[in-house]
Amino acid sequence: MKKKIGVKILGTGSYFPKKVLTNLDLEKIVDTSDEWISTRTGIKERRVSEKNEPTSELAFKASTEALKFANILPGQIDMILVATVTPDMLFPSTACFLQTKLNISSVPAFDLSASCSGFIYGISIAKAFIESGLYKKILLVGVDELTKITDWTDRNTCVLFGDGAGAMVLSASYEDDDILSVFLGADGSYSNLLFLPAGGTSKPTTLDTINEKLHTIKMHGKEVFRVAVPKMVLAAEKALKFSEKRLEDIKLFIPHQANMRIIEAVAKKMGIPMDKVFVNIHKTGNVSSATTITALDEAIKTGRLKNGDIVELVAFGGGFTWGAAVIKI
Ligand code: UT7
Question: How many angstroms separate the CA atoms of 49 and 244, rounded?
């Protein structure tokens, strides 16, 4: 009988731009306060990319670190997958720009758009490609530069977002199977609660769309919050069930870092003590497709996770989309 192909996680990496924007800096830009932002969101500061530092550049730096950690040369990668909603351009894909930066030729490269759940969607795609036998070594990146599509006069949104990138190298294996389960969901009927109105085919760019600031994120925060909590709980519980693990088996929960109150509400509903929940929102803000992978990378590199530990990632974002994955480090 043919042996089943498993997926091994070979390494992770991450990168945040150097420039720090604190809540005190934001107080000078919009009518807000460190106190409001800290208590309502848990965010204290976020990183902001430079004008000449596109998404593919952050992706490149995170990928280089992940490849080094995995002890893999770029030329050994046979597929590049980038989860992002802030691509360098509408096309070509950011994955193609990344491919050139990594000096890899010919291998397939494409982007996927699932907002803040993008990295978890990516894990599912990488798993399916590897298990099918089509590709052996996949570079998966979660990256976003939301600060480049932020309306800096809108205090409802501009205090929330940051830029960052995380990467993972996954490989076919006959010995290991590190992706224990993935659960994904989406509901497009909520698309009007968190979106970027213009620049696509439904509202091509015109002087009017620019004047109306329709190329920046629009969000109905309260409504998003209300749906985010139950969907994250649903996704986390489903993925846990499919993994055939119990809550006690999970060393660390890594939730999407959008709002500290969402994280605490999800943990409370699931009965997870906060000391088993990873939080880095205070220094990153919401980095969309990059949150779960950058948090995972930090947990590994700071020694909070060690080989063999089981981790659950869970995310929620525009679409709406949601997803969770139980993985072994
Ligand atoms: O990545 C996944 C998608 N995103 C999310 O998951 C975000 C989900 N939503 C949230 O995190 C929260 O809803 C927010 C942090 C966005 C807002 O928190 P909230 O507790 O829901 O506040 P609110 O929108 O109900 O606003 C409360 C008050 C309002 O004033 P009034 O109308 O009560 O006088 C706002 O105008 O707070 C005001 N406000 C602010 N005040 C100071 C809104 N933004 C700010 C601000 N600084 N930055």
Answer: 41
